[in-house]
Design goal:
alpha+beta, Beta-Lactamase, Helix Hairpins, Heat Shock Protein 90, 3 domains, 5-stranded antiparallel beta sheet, 12 strands, 46% helix, elongated, binds adenosine-5'-diphosphate
């Protein structure tokens, strides 16, 4: 091998490695070596161990047979043979390509793809017409197949790393959750225990107003505890797919008006601005949908204290869009991708009570309605949670 060949290969190696996306890397690989090895189409078939079939994961047409790109059926039979034998297979065949404007032969060559040490797929080149493959061509093609296997392995590793990161984050969240939840459970329990012990003291007589005040605190804290336990159970049921939904025709506008009345009674100091278009009913679980709106509302009150809260509902094509907006501090952009995850709380939020379950529950409920929920937030301006539901019954 001479220096210029090595320099040439080194340059290609660098270019291919720099491409983050595996398909773009493969494109670069095939195009760069096309001057040395001419082919019309290339396809990669990966074996599905469960179904014992193979699936086309990559197909490119660079030459005359451009129409054959989409299905890559032309190489299927050969890919099966390669997968059976575990070695290179050459096939020269006379096929009728009249539909492509000429009658010619197709030369195919297929290589096994070993990922790790496992035979995982096949890479097949086809050349329509033209000369058969020379020894040099076959060696270049084999090099490309070897390289392609390495790129697929790199893709698999990248995917595994993303999954691992997510599992690790989930484990960290779960750890945080244990400390959050013990705090969240202890606080109301502490109040209940403290105030009931005070009321029971033999040596003190409380006047009626104080007694009522203490009982009110006990009552509120017991509610908080019940909500917390309900959230935990709910999130566990959603996680295990055992939460039952009862679907019927639901009037979203009525649900939101009810919620507003409830919130006005509980928090008379908060200004709620309603802007609701007349809407057709949707198919949904009224109780669960109320729970979602309740949650978003409670969050707005918790995280944007004192802010006006606007509810805007529009019918957009075959969907209904509900937006709940506050004018709070907002959520830093870096945290937005995670806030619907189970147990996730924005770091530094420790002074506000919460478990990180609320938005997870909301998302699962909306997904069970085949809807969509997302957040838009601008620091210093406010946060909007948007829900889209299909309006078909
Ligand atoms: P929790 O409120 O129990 O912490 P959620 O799942 O309801 O859990 O919310 C997750 C996180 O999203 C919260 O910890 C909070 O930081 C952030 N968040 C939710 N709603 C808002 C909002 N309206 N404004 C600012 N931050 C919010």
């Amino acid at each position: 091998m001479d220096t210029s060949t090595l320099t040439f290969l080194h340059k290609i190696f660098q270019e291919v490695q720099q491409k983050q996306d595996w398909k773009t890397a493969l494109d670069t690989l095939f195009v760069s070596l096309r001057g040395s090895f001419i082919f019309d189409n290339v396809a990669i078939y990966l074996a599905e161990s469960k179904t014992k079939t193979s699936e086309v994961v990559y197909a490119r047409a660079v030459g005359r047979g451009k129409t054959a790109e989409a299905d890559a059926v032309w190489g299927e039979a050969l890919s099966h043979e390669v997968l059976e034998k575990g070695e290179m297979v050459l096939m020269e065949s006379k096929v009728d390509l009249r539909q492509m404007g000429r009658m010619t032969s197709a030369n195919l060559v297929g290589f096994p793809l070993f990922i790790g040490s496992k035979l995982s797929g096949a890479l097949v080149f086809v050349r329509f017409g033209g000369p058969t493959y020379s020894e040099l061509h076959i060696q270049i093609a084999a090099l490309q197949a070897f390289w392609a296997a390495a790129l697929i392995e790199r893709r698999d590793l990248q995917e595994a790393r993303v999954e691992l990161d997510s599992v690790q984050r989930q484990m960290r969240l779960q750890d945080d959750f244990v400390s959050t939840i013990s705090h969240e459970l202890r606080t109301p329990l502490g109040f209940i225990k403290g105030y009931s012990t005070s009321l029971l003291r033999q040596d003190t007589v409380w006047d009626e107003a104080t007694q009522r005040e203490f009982l009110n605190i006990i009552d509120e804290e017991a509610d908080r505890l019940a909500r917390l336990i309900e959230d935990m159970l709910e999130s566990a049921r959603l996680q295990s797919n055992t939460l039952q939904f009862k679907f019927s025709a639901v009037r979203i506008d009525a649900l939101l008006r009810d919620l507003t009345v409830r919130m006005n009674t509980l928090h008379p100091e908060i200004n709620i601005l309603l802007d609701i278009q007349p809407l057709p009913p949707v198919r949904g679980d009224a109780m669960r949908l109320s729970q979602v709106f309740d949650n978003l509302f409670t969050n707005a009150i918790k995280y944007a204290p004192g802010s006006d809260i606007s509810i805007n509902v529009r019918s957009i094509g075959d969907r209904i869009r509900i937006a709940i907006t506050d004018k709070g501090e907002g959520i830093p952009e870096a945290y937005l991708p995670f806030i619907f995850e189970r147990f996730y709380r924005v770091p530094g939020e420790r002074t506000v009570p919460g478990t990180g379950l609320g938005l997870y529950i909301c998302k699962q409920i909306i997904m069970a309605h085949h809807g969509n929920i997302w957040v838009e937030s601008v620091m210093g301006t406010g946060t909007t949670f948007i829900i889209e539901l299909s309006n078909s019954l």
